[in-house]
Design goal:
about 55% helix, 15 strands, alpha+beta, 21 helices, 3 domains, single chain, three-stranded antiparallel β-sheet
Length: about 475
Protein backbone atom coordinates (compact mmCIF):
# COMPACT_ATOMS: atom_id res chain seq x y z
CA UNK A 1 0.00 0.00 0.00
CA UNK A 2 2.73 2.49 1.03
CA UNK A 3 4.71 1.64 -2.12
CA UNK A 4 1.73 2.40 -4.36
CA UNK A 5 0.96 5.68 -2.57
CA UNK A 6 4.61 6.76 -2.75
CA UNK A 7 4.75 6.07 -6.50
CA UNK A 8 1.58 8.07 -7.15
CA UNK A 9 2.83 10.96 -5.01
CA UNK A 10 5.90 11.28 -7.24
CA UNK A 11 3.66 12.18 -10.19
CA UNK A 12 1.32 14.57 -8.42
CA UNK A 13 3.44 17.47 -9.61
CA UNK A 14 4.77 16.15 -12.90
CA UNK A 15 6.74 19.20 -13.96
CA UNK A 16 8.69 19.41 -10.73
CA UNK A 17 9.35 15.68 -10.68
CA UNK A 18 10.48 15.69 -14.30
CA UNK A 19 12.92 18.52 -13.63
CA UNK A 20 14.57 16.44 -10.91
CA UNK A 21 14.50 13.27 -13.02
CA UNK A 22 16.11 15.07 -15.98
CA UNK A 23 18.77 16.55 -13.68
CA UNK A 24 19.56 13.10 -12.26
CA UNK A 25 19.58 11.61 -15.77
CA UNK A 26 22.05 14.19 -17.09
CA UNK A 27 24.21 13.87 -13.99
CA UNK A 28 24.40 10.09 -14.33
CA UNK A 29 25.14 10.34 -18.07
CA UNK A 30 28.03 12.72 -17.30
CA UNK A 31 29.32 10.37 -14.60
CA UNK A 32 29.07 7.29 -16.82
CA UNK A 33 30.90 9.01 -19.68
CA UNK A 34 33.60 10.40 -17.40
CA UNK A 35 34.27 7.05 -15.76
CA UNK A 36 34.08 5.29 -19.15
CA UNK A 37 36.75 7.60 -20.54
CA UNK A 38 38.95 7.13 -17.46
CA UNK A 39 38.50 3.35 -17.60
CA UNK A 40 39.34 3.35 -21.31
CA UNK A 41 42.48 5.42 -20.79
CA UNK A 42 43.70 3.31 -17.87
CA UNK A 43 43.08 0.04 -19.72
CA UNK A 44 44.84 1.42 -22.78
CA UNK A 45 47.83 2.57 -20.73
CA UNK A 46 48.08 -0.78 -18.97
CA UNK A 47 47.71 -2.76 -22.22
CA UNK A 48 50.33 -0.68 -24.05
CA UNK A 49 52.73 -0.79 -21.09
CA UNK A 50 52.51 -4.59 -20.95
CA UNK A 51 52.38 -5.43 -24.66
CA UNK A 52 54.72 -2.75 -26.02
CA UNK A 53 57.14 -1.84 -23.25
CA UNK A 54 57.61 -4.14 -20.25
CA UNK A 55 55.63 -7.42 -20.50
CA UNK A 56 54.31 -8.92 -17.25
CA UNK A 57 57.71 -9.78 -15.77
CA UNK A 58 61.31 -8.83 -16.50
CA UNK A 59 64.56 -10.34 -15.21
CA UNK A 60 67.90 -8.49 -15.04
CA UNK A 61 71.26 -8.83 -13.37
CA UNK A 62 71.10 -7.01 -10.01
CA UNK A 63 73.91 -4.64 -11.01
CA UNK A 64 72.55 -4.03 -14.51
CA UNK A 65 69.54 -2.23 -13.00
CA UNK A 66 71.93 0.24 -11.32
CA UNK A 67 74.49 0.56 -14.11
CA UNK A 68 73.61 -0.70 -17.59
CA UNK A 69 77.06 -1.88 -18.60
CA UNK A 70 77.50 -4.38 -21.40
CA UNK A 71 79.13 -7.11 -19.28
CA UNK A 72 76.34 -7.21 -16.64
CA UNK A 73 74.39 -10.09 -18.16
CA UNK A 74 71.84 -12.34 -16.48
CA UNK A 75 73.47 -14.94 -14.21
CA UNK A 76 72.73 -18.68 -14.30
CA UNK A 77 70.88 -18.23 -17.59
CA UNK A 78 70.38 -21.93 -18.29
CA UNK A 79 68.69 -22.62 -14.94
CA UNK A 80 66.46 -19.54 -15.28
CA UNK A 81 65.30 -20.40 -18.79
CA UNK A 82 64.52 -23.97 -17.67
CA UNK A 83 62.41 -22.59 -14.79
CA UNK A 84 60.57 -20.23 -17.15
CA UNK A 85 59.76 -23.05 -19.60
CA UNK A 86 58.22 -25.05 -16.75
CA UNK A 87 55.70 -22.31 -15.85
CA UNK A 88 52.06 -23.30 -16.40
CA UNK A 89 51.10 -19.62 -16.50
CA UNK A 90 53.47 -18.86 -19.37
CA UNK A 91 52.29 -17.33 -22.67
CA UNK A 92 55.69 -16.48 -24.12
CA UNK A 93 59.17 -15.18 -23.25
CA UNK A 94 62.20 -13.69 -24.99
CA UNK A 95 65.85 -12.87 -24.33
CA UNK A 96 67.18 -9.43 -25.25
CA UNK A 97 70.51 -7.68 -25.51
CA UNK A 98 70.16 -4.12 -24.21
CA UNK A 99 72.87 -1.50 -24.78
CA UNK A 100 72.97 2.28 -24.48
CA UNK A 101 74.06 3.73 -27.84
CA UNK A 102 74.39 6.85 -29.94
CA UNK A 103 72.57 6.96 -33.27
CA UNK A 104 73.84 9.30 -36.01
CA UNK A 105 72.76 10.39 -39.46
CA UNK A 106 74.40 13.07 -41.65
CA UNK A 107 71.90 15.58 -40.25
CA UNK A 108 71.48 14.79 -36.54
CA UNK A 109 72.20 12.41 -33.65
CA UNK A 110 70.28 11.02 -30.68
CA UNK A 111 70.95 8.88 -27.64
CA UNK A 112 69.02 5.59 -27.72
CA UNK A 113 68.74 2.19 -26.11
CA UNK A 114 69.40 -0.46 -28.72
CA UNK A 115 67.70 -3.83 -28.22
CA UNK A 116 69.10 -6.94 -29.84
CA UNK A 117 66.15 -9.28 -30.36
CA UNK A 118 64.95 -12.39 -32.14
CA UNK A 119 62.34 -10.69 -34.33
CA UNK A 120 60.04 -13.71 -34.68
CA UNK A 121 60.08 -14.68 -31.01
CA UNK A 122 59.51 -11.05 -30.04
CA UNK A 123 56.10 -11.23 -31.71
CA UNK A 124 55.02 -13.69 -29.00
CA UNK A 125 55.59 -11.07 -26.30
CA UNK A 126 55.19 -7.58 -27.78
CA UNK A 127 52.96 -5.89 -30.35
CA UNK A 128 55.59 -3.57 -31.80
CA UNK A 129 55.26 -5.40 -35.11
CA UNK A 130 51.64 -4.19 -35.27
CA UNK A 131 52.66 -0.56 -34.73
CA UNK A 132 54.40 0.07 -38.06
CA UNK A 133 53.16 3.41 -39.41
CA UNK A 134 51.59 3.69 -42.91
CA UNK A 135 54.31 3.97 -45.56
CA UNK A 136 56.81 3.30 -42.78
CA UNK A 137 58.49 0.19 -44.18
CA UNK A 138 58.22 -3.12 -42.35
CA UNK A 139 59.15 -5.04 -39.23
CA UNK A 140 62.56 -6.61 -38.64
CA UNK A 141 63.39 -9.79 -40.53
CA UNK A 142 65.77 -12.28 -38.95
CA UNK A 143 67.24 -12.98 -42.39
CA UNK A 144 68.09 -9.33 -43.20
CA UNK A 145 71.55 -8.14 -42.19
CA UNK A 146 72.11 -4.81 -40.46
CA UNK A 147 68.46 -3.68 -40.44
CA UNK A 148 67.23 -1.35 -37.70
CA UNK A 149 63.67 -0.58 -36.58
CA UNK A 150 63.24 2.92 -35.18
CA UNK A 151 60.27 4.92 -33.94
CA UNK A 152 58.50 7.88 -35.50
CA UNK A 153 59.95 10.10 -32.76
CA UNK A 154 63.49 8.83 -33.30
CA UNK A 155 63.08 9.34 -37.05
CA UNK A 156 62.11 12.93 -36.33
CA UNK A 157 65.14 13.48 -34.08
CA UNK A 158 67.49 11.96 -36.69
CA UNK A 159 65.89 14.05 -39.48
CA UNK A 160 64.63 10.92 -41.22
CA UNK A 161 61.03 12.10 -40.94
CA UNK A 162 60.96 14.57 -43.79
CA UNK A 163 58.39 16.40 -45.87
CA UNK A 164 58.30 17.00 -49.59
CA UNK A 165 55.59 18.22 -51.96
CA UNK A 166 55.57 16.26 -55.22
CA UNK A 167 53.36 16.08 -58.30
CA UNK A 168 51.95 12.73 -57.17
CA UNK A 169 51.13 14.19 -53.76
CA UNK A 170 49.27 17.11 -55.37
CA UNK A 171 47.33 14.65 -57.53
CA UNK A 172 46.37 12.77 -54.36
CA UNK A 173 45.12 16.00 -52.78
CA UNK A 174 42.93 16.63 -55.83
CA UNK A 175 41.15 13.36 -55.05
CA UNK A 176 40.47 14.73 -51.54
CA UNK A 177 38.55 17.71 -53.06
CA UNK A 178 41.13 20.30 -51.96
CA UNK A 179 40.27 23.69 -53.59
CA UNK A 180 42.31 24.67 -56.62
CA UNK A 181 43.57 27.91 -55.08
CA UNK A 182 45.14 25.90 -52.23
CA UNK A 183 46.79 23.49 -54.67
CA UNK A 184 48.22 26.41 -56.66
CA UNK A 185 49.92 27.73 -53.51
CA UNK A 186 51.48 24.30 -52.95
CA UNK A 187 53.43 24.75 -56.18
CA UNK A 188 55.64 27.21 -54.28
CA UNK A 189 56.77 24.34 -52.00
CA UNK A 190 57.18 21.65 -54.65
CA UNK A 191 60.33 19.51 -54.59
CA UNK A 192 61.76 21.29 -51.54
CA UNK A 193 62.80 18.81 -48.85
CA UNK A 194 62.02 19.86 -45.27
CA UNK A 195 63.92 17.88 -42.64
CA UNK A 196 61.63 18.54 -39.68
CA UNK A 197 57.89 19.01 -39.03
CA UNK A 198 58.60 22.48 -37.62
CA UNK A 199 60.35 23.66 -40.79
CA UNK A 200 57.49 22.44 -42.97
CA UNK A 201 54.78 23.94 -40.75
CA UNK A 202 56.61 27.27 -40.57
CA UNK A 203 56.84 27.40 -44.34
CA UNK A 204 53.15 26.54 -44.73
CA UNK A 205 52.30 29.49 -42.45
CA UNK A 206 54.08 31.74 -44.94
CA UNK A 207 52.13 30.31 -47.87
CA UNK A 208 48.60 29.67 -46.55
CA UNK A 209 46.10 31.73 -44.61
CA UNK A 210 45.08 30.76 -41.07
CA UNK A 211 41.71 29.53 -42.32
CA UNK A 212 43.35 27.36 -45.01
CA UNK A 213 45.75 25.89 -42.46
CA UNK A 214 42.92 25.04 -40.08
CA UNK A 215 40.95 23.37 -42.88
CA UNK A 216 43.67 21.56 -44.83
CA UNK A 217 46.92 21.77 -42.84
CA UNK A 218 46.76 18.31 -41.25
CA UNK A 219 45.82 16.63 -44.53
CA UNK A 220 48.62 18.35 -46.46
CA UNK A 221 51.17 17.54 -43.75
CA UNK A 222 50.14 13.89 -43.74
CA UNK A 223 50.40 13.61 -47.53
CA UNK A 224 53.78 15.35 -47.64
CA UNK A 225 55.33 13.07 -45.01
CA UNK A 226 58.25 11.07 -46.36
CA UNK A 227 60.07 8.58 -44.11
CA UNK A 228 63.64 7.92 -45.25
CA UNK A 229 63.34 4.13 -45.32
CA UNK A 230 66.62 2.30 -46.07
CA UNK A 231 68.58 5.35 -44.99
CA UNK A 232 71.84 4.60 -43.17
CA UNK A 233 72.10 5.10 -39.41
CA UNK A 234 75.46 4.88 -37.65
CA UNK A 235 75.30 3.20 -34.25
CA UNK A 236 78.07 3.75 -31.69
CA UNK A 237 78.35 1.53 -28.59
CA UNK A 238 81.05 0.40 -26.18
CA UNK A 239 82.43 -3.13 -26.40
CA UNK A 240 83.30 -5.31 -23.38
CA UNK A 241 86.62 -3.51 -22.91
CA UNK A 242 84.89 -0.12 -22.96
CA UNK A 243 86.21 0.84 -26.39
CA UNK A 244 83.82 2.62 -28.78
CA UNK A 245 82.76 0.59 -31.80
CA UNK A 246 80.61 1.71 -34.69
CA UNK A 247 78.37 0.01 -37.19
CA UNK A 248 76.14 1.07 -40.05
CA UNK A 249 72.51 -0.10 -40.10
CA UNK A 250 69.73 0.63 -42.58
CA UNK A 251 66.26 1.66 -41.47
CA UNK A 252 63.83 -1.13 -42.33
CA UNK A 253 60.75 0.36 -40.68
CA UNK A 254 59.20 3.01 -38.49
CA UNK A 255 56.93 2.19 -35.56
CA UNK A 256 54.80 4.41 -33.31
CA UNK A 257 53.22 3.56 -29.95
CA UNK A 258 51.23 5.74 -27.58
CA UNK A 259 54.27 6.48 -25.37
CA UNK A 260 56.61 9.09 -26.84
CA UNK A 261 59.15 8.53 -24.06
CA UNK A 262 59.47 4.83 -24.87
CA UNK A 263 59.54 5.50 -28.61
CA UNK A 264 62.26 8.11 -28.37
CA UNK A 265 64.59 5.78 -26.48
CA UNK A 266 64.02 2.39 -28.11
CA UNK A 267 65.43 1.02 -31.37
CA UNK A 268 65.58 -2.66 -32.38
CA UNK A 269 68.05 -4.76 -34.36
CA UNK A 270 68.65 -8.47 -34.77
CA UNK A 271 70.55 -9.84 -31.76
CA UNK A 272 73.12 -11.58 -33.98
CA UNK A 273 73.96 -8.38 -35.85
CA UNK A 274 74.40 -6.50 -32.57
CA UNK A 275 76.71 -9.28 -31.33
CA UNK A 276 78.84 -8.84 -34.47
CA UNK A 277 79.12 -5.14 -33.61
CA UNK A 278 80.37 -5.57 -30.05
CA UNK A 279 82.53 -8.53 -31.06
CA UNK A 280 81.03 -11.22 -28.87
CA UNK A 281 81.13 -14.90 -29.75
CA UNK A 282 77.84 -15.35 -27.92
CA UNK A 283 74.73 -13.19 -27.85
CA UNK A 284 74.60 -11.38 -24.52
CA UNK A 285 71.39 -11.56 -22.50
CA UNK A 286 70.74 -8.48 -20.41
CA UNK A 287 66.97 -8.82 -20.15
CA UNK A 288 64.35 -11.55 -20.17
CA UNK A 289 60.76 -10.47 -20.79
CA UNK A 290 57.94 -12.84 -19.82
CA UNK A 291 54.31 -12.66 -20.90
CA UNK A 292 51.72 -14.60 -18.90
CA UNK A 293 48.24 -15.83 -19.74
CA UNK A 294 46.78 -13.80 -16.87
CA UNK A 295 48.13 -10.53 -15.50
CA UNK A 296 46.93 -11.51 -12.02
CA UNK A 297 49.53 -14.32 -11.92
CA UNK A 298 52.52 -11.93 -12.08
CA UNK A 299 53.10 -11.81 -8.32
CA UNK A 300 52.80 -15.59 -7.97
CA UNK A 301 55.25 -16.23 -10.84
CA UNK A 302 57.72 -13.73 -9.38
CA UNK A 303 57.75 -15.75 -6.13
CA UNK A 304 58.54 -18.87 -8.14
CA UNK A 305 61.44 -17.30 -10.03
CA UNK A 306 62.98 -15.26 -7.21
CA UNK A 307 64.82 -18.19 -5.54
CA UNK A 308 66.42 -19.45 -8.78
CA UNK A 309 69.37 -17.03 -8.61
CA UNK A 310 69.78 -14.23 -6.09
CA UNK A 311 72.24 -12.42 -8.39
CA UNK A 312 69.27 -11.52 -10.62
CA UNK A 313 66.25 -9.36 -9.94
CA UNK A 314 62.74 -10.43 -10.94
CA UNK A 315 60.28 -7.52 -11.28
CA UNK A 316 56.60 -7.50 -12.13
CA UNK A 317 54.77 -4.98 -14.27
CA UNK A 318 53.69 -3.13 -11.13
CA UNK A 319 57.33 -2.41 -10.29
CA UNK A 320 58.29 -1.64 -13.88
CA UNK A 321 55.33 0.68 -14.61
CA UNK A 322 54.21 2.07 -11.23
CA UNK A 323 52.12 4.78 -12.89
CA UNK A 324 49.92 2.23 -14.67
CA UNK A 325 49.77 0.06 -11.56
CA UNK A 326 48.69 2.95 -9.35
CA UNK A 327 45.92 4.03 -11.71
CA UNK A 328 44.69 0.45 -12.05
CA UNK A 329 44.67 -0.13 -8.29
CA UNK A 330 42.97 3.17 -7.50
CA UNK A 331 40.16 2.87 -10.04
CA UNK A 332 37.60 2.41 -7.26
CA UNK A 333 38.80 5.71 -5.79
CA UNK A 334 38.13 7.42 -9.12
CA UNK A 335 34.63 5.93 -9.05
CA UNK A 336 33.99 7.31 -5.58
CA UNK A 337 35.41 10.77 -6.35
CA UNK A 338 33.70 11.36 -9.70
CA UNK A 339 30.34 9.81 -8.90
CA UNK A 340 30.43 11.13 -5.32
CA UNK A 341 30.76 14.73 -6.52
CA UNK A 342 27.88 14.28 -8.96
CA UNK A 343 25.68 12.59 -6.37
CA UNK A 344 26.42 15.32 -3.83
CA UNK A 345 25.32 18.00 -6.29
CA UNK A 346 22.17 16.07 -7.18
CA UNK A 347 21.35 15.47 -3.52
CA UNK A 348 20.81 19.19 -2.91
CA UNK A 349 18.30 19.34 -5.77
CA UNK A 350 16.48 16.24 -4.52
CA UNK A 351 16.30 17.58 -0.95
CA UNK A 352 14.96 20.91 -2.16
CA UNK A 353 12.28 19.20 -4.25
CA UNK A 354 11.15 16.96 -1.39
CA UNK A 355 11.05 19.86 1.07
CA UNK A 356 8.77 21.73 -1.36
CA UNK A 357 6.57 18.63 -1.60
CA UNK A 358 6.33 18.41 2.21
CA UNK A 359 5.43 22.09 2.45
CA UNK A 360 2.65 21.72 -0.11
CA UNK A 361 1.26 18.60 1.58
CA UNK A 362 1.36 19.80 5.19
CA UNK A 363 -2.43 19.55 5.63
CA UNK A 364 -2.52 16.14 3.96
CA UNK A 365 0.25 14.79 6.17
CA UNK A 366 -1.53 16.18 9.27
CA UNK A 367 -4.70 14.36 8.24
CA UNK A 368 -2.82 11.07 7.75
CA UNK A 369 -1.36 11.40 11.24
CA UNK A 370 -4.76 12.31 12.68
CA UNK A 371 -6.44 9.19 11.28
CA UNK A 372 -3.78 6.92 12.75
CA UNK A 373 -0.83 6.57 10.31
CA UNK A 374 2.21 6.17 12.52
CA UNK A 375 5.42 8.12 12.08
CA UNK A 376 7.36 5.10 10.82
CA UNK A 377 5.02 4.64 7.86
CA UNK A 378 5.16 8.35 7.03
CA UNK A 379 8.95 8.23 7.11
CA UNK A 380 8.89 5.17 4.87
CA UNK A 381 6.49 6.82 2.40
CA UNK A 382 8.65 9.94 2.02
CA UNK A 383 11.80 7.85 1.72
CA UNK A 384 10.20 5.72 -1.01
CA UNK A 385 9.09 8.83 -2.90
CA UNK A 386 12.68 10.11 -2.84
CA UNK A 387 14.07 6.74 -3.93
CA UNK A 388 11.54 6.43 -6.79
CA UNK A 389 12.29 9.97 -7.96
CA UNK A 390 16.03 9.34 -7.97
CA UNK A 391 16.00 5.80 -9.35
CA UNK A 392 13.83 6.74 -12.35
CA UNK A 393 16.38 9.37 -13.35
CA UNK A 394 19.29 7.07 -12.58
CA UNK A 395 17.94 4.22 -14.71
CA UNK A 396 17.36 6.60 -17.62
CA UNK A 397 20.86 8.02 -17.12
CA UNK A 398 22.55 4.63 -16.95
CA UNK A 399 20.77 3.36 -20.06
CA UNK A 400 21.57 6.54 -22.00
CA UNK A 401 25.14 6.62 -20.73
CA UNK A 402 25.65 2.94 -21.56
CA UNK A 403 24.33 3.50 -25.10
CA UNK A 404 26.48 6.58 -25.72
CA UNK A 405 29.57 4.90 -24.26
CA UNK A 406 28.93 1.81 -26.40
CA UNK A 407 28.92 3.94 -29.56
CA UNK A 408 31.99 5.94 -28.54
CA UNK A 409 33.71 2.70 -27.53
CA UNK A 410 33.65 1.70 -31.20
CA UNK A 411 34.40 5.06 -32.81
CA UNK A 412 36.71 6.46 -30.11
CA UNK A 413 37.12 10.02 -28.92
CA UNK A 414 40.08 11.80 -30.50
CA UNK A 415 41.67 14.59 -28.45
CA UNK A 416 43.50 16.04 -31.44
CA UNK A 417 44.56 19.29 -29.82
CA UNK A 418 46.13 17.53 -26.82
CA UNK A 419 47.41 14.41 -28.55
CA UNK A 420 51.11 15.26 -28.31
CA UNK A 421 50.81 16.05 -24.59
CA UNK A 422 48.91 12.83 -23.85
CA UNK A 423 51.44 10.69 -25.74
CA UNK A 424 54.29 12.33 -23.85
CA UNK A 425 52.98 10.68 -20.67
CA UNK A 426 52.00 7.39 -22.30
CA UNK A 427 48.30 7.94 -23.06
CA UNK A 428 46.73 7.58 -26.49
CA UNK A 429 45.27 10.65 -28.20
CA UNK A 430 42.27 8.49 -29.17
CA UNK A 431 40.47 6.91 -26.23
CA UNK A 432 37.83 4.16 -26.41
CA UNK A 433 35.52 4.44 -23.38
CA UNK A 434 34.55 1.18 -21.70
CA UNK A 435 32.32 0.27 -18.77
CA UNK A 436 32.42 -2.75 -16.49
CA UNK A 437 29.52 -4.51 -14.75
CA UNK A 438 31.15 -3.62 -11.43
CA UNK A 439 30.72 0.08 -12.22
CA UNK A 440 26.97 -0.27 -12.73
CA UNK A 441 26.66 -2.17 -9.46
CA UNK A 442 28.63 0.61 -7.76
CA UNK A 443 26.58 3.43 -9.26
CA UNK A 444 23.30 1.67 -8.37
CA UNK A 445 24.42 1.46 -4.73
CA UNK A 446 25.49 5.11 -4.81
CA UNK A 447 22.14 6.22 -6.26
CA UNK A 448 20.09 4.34 -3.67
CA UNK A 449 22.34 5.58 -0.85
CA UNK A 450 22.01 9.17 -2.12
CA UNK A 451 18.22 8.86 -2.29
CA UNK A 452 17.98 7.47 1.25
CA UNK A 453 20.28 10.14 2.70
CA UNK A 454 18.44 12.85 0.77
CA UNK A 455 15.12 11.68 2.21
CA UNK A 456 16.17 12.04 5.86
CA UNK A 457 15.84 15.83 6.14
CA UNK A 458 12.44 16.10 4.37
CA UNK A 459 11.16 13.08 6.33
CA UNK A 460 12.24 14.60 9.64
CA UNK A 461 10.54 17.81 8.62
CA UNK A 462 7.31 15.88 8.11
CA UNK A 463 7.63 13.99 11.38
CA UNK A 464 7.90 17.24 13.32
CA UNK A 465 4.44 18.30 12.14
CA UNK A 466 1.75 18.54 14.81
CA UNK A 467 -1.48 17.06 13.36
CA UNK A 468 -3.82 19.70 14.84
CA UNK A 469 -1.71 22.60 13.55
CA UNK A 470 -1.12 20.90 10.19
CA UNK A 471 -4.88 20.50 9.63
CA UNK A 472 -5.36 24.25 10.04
CA UNK A 473 -2.87 24.97 7.24
CA UNK A 474 -4.45 26.37 4.07
Amino acid sequence: MIWSIAWKNVWRNKKRSLVVIVAVTLGIIAGVLLVGIMEGWINQRLHDAVYNEISHIQIHNNEFIKNEEIDLTIRNLHEITRSIDSLKELSGWVKRTKIIAMANTPWANAGVIIYGIDAEKEKQVTEIYKKIVPDGGGYLDNQSARDILISDKTAELLKLKQYIVTDSMIEGLKQEKIPGNVLVKLENLKDIRFRSPKDFKDEMKNVFSRKELDSYGLLITGKALDYRIRNKVQITISDKEGNPVQGIFRVCGIYKTTNTGFDQASVFVNAGELANLYGGNDILTHEIAILLNNIEDAGFVKEKLDPVDRDNTVRTWKELAPDAAMMNDFMIMYYIIFIGIIMLALAFGIINTMLMAILERTKELGMLMAIGMNRGRIFKMIMLETVFLTVVGAVAGMLSGWTITGVLGKTGIHFTGWGEGFEAIGFAARVYPILTPEFFIFITIMVIATAIVSSIWPARKALKLIPVEALRTE
